[in-house]
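## tool: complex_structure
## caller: assistant
## args:
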Amino acid sequence: MKKWTILLLLVLLYVLLLPAQASFLAADDTAAVLTEETREDLEELSRRLQNRTGIRLQVVTRHFLGGGNKAAYAKSLLESAPDPDNTLLLLMVIGEEDYTAVTGAYAGQMISAAFLDTQLATAFRPAYMQRQYSEAAGKFMLAAARQIAASSGERLDTSGLFGENAYATQAPKQEEPDSAYWWEDFFTESAPVDHDEQLRTRRQMEDISGLSFWNLVVIAFVLYFIFGRGKKNWDGCGCGCGPFSYLLAVFGLADLFGLRKK
Amino acid sequence: MRRKSTAIAALLLMLVLLASALGIGAYKGWAEEYRQVLDAQSSLVDMLTARREVGYNIATVAKRHISPDDPLLQSIRESLQVLESGESLPRKAAANQRLAADAQQVLGKLESLSSVQNDERDSMYVENLLPQALEQSAQWTQETLYNQRALSFNQGLQGSFSGMIARLLGVKEAEFFLPPGEDKP
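## result:
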């Protein structure tokens, strides 16, 4: 009973310590004016930019604001974002034919208000007033993302997004090489493939929560010390099969319940 | 003699204390009731905000197809100003009714315009989104329990002894959310 209580407490403690992952949509298209490709491209562009510079992009569309102030509304949307300081938000109010862009504290250092105004007037507005909402959002965000990357001294790959470099979207999906030994896949984490040069196709936005390899090892040994080292088993055979079996069990269960970080 | 004066003084003190207790109790009780009526009024204000937003949205679309000097649009603008201001409830009720009527007329007018019919986006607004929003906001306003609460409060204030005392001590009747001249609910 005592062991189960300790185990439960450890699990609860671990869950509480896991960082909360607020959901984030790079394209909050309530007005349903953006194409699916544009929404996917915005998600991908935001992800690539965040990987390089830590800045996120968000496009929000609404039909009307009911007489409300667009700047105040955009500010309230920005403040409700998971990371307001590192976010650039574009608000498109379709029914009012109005728009605005706001930046968080840190994002504002990467891209000036003057640049945003210029891009809104040149890259965004003509397409927007022609009701080419996807084109308008894409052009503006591409320009903004490049400017942010340049300010950060980073190189941003925008190939395959918003119709640029069409060949990039047709390239075959890169597959990871097969493991030389069957147990490598079981014990090792998947190699991260979010390096821009390696990307040839669009990825879906991934959930980054989950238990890493070393998390699982720690859990296995904690369980072993709680349950495996009773008086009966104190004099074990010494070959290490006890802890090893706990490791196998924990990794197996983690894969079964999808708890491992990919 | 001395005993008699003491007794009279004690009696007077008792009557004063009794009257004070009665007055304080009546005032506190009815003031609390009035606060509850004001709470209902705050939810009424929220509903009117939704109504006002719909009015703004209709005016926004209408401006693209109708002259800004159109009497209907001007009337809508005036009604919206009243709803936004700190006017009395009866005036806001009148503005609310006017807004509903004018908004319906504007939507009907817009539907018949060729400029709206040739505009996919605005025709969607005029035929679907805005009428639905207007109808929804009308339902919310009609369903408010504020007038019932105000009537119940006023009847109690008028019809009870403690209410009479509370009125003497400054507790006022609640305003109805009805245009001037309309009968009480």
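## assistant note: The beta strands of chain A are 27-29, 56-62, 87-93, 98-103. Chain A is about 50% helix and 10% strand. Handing back to user.
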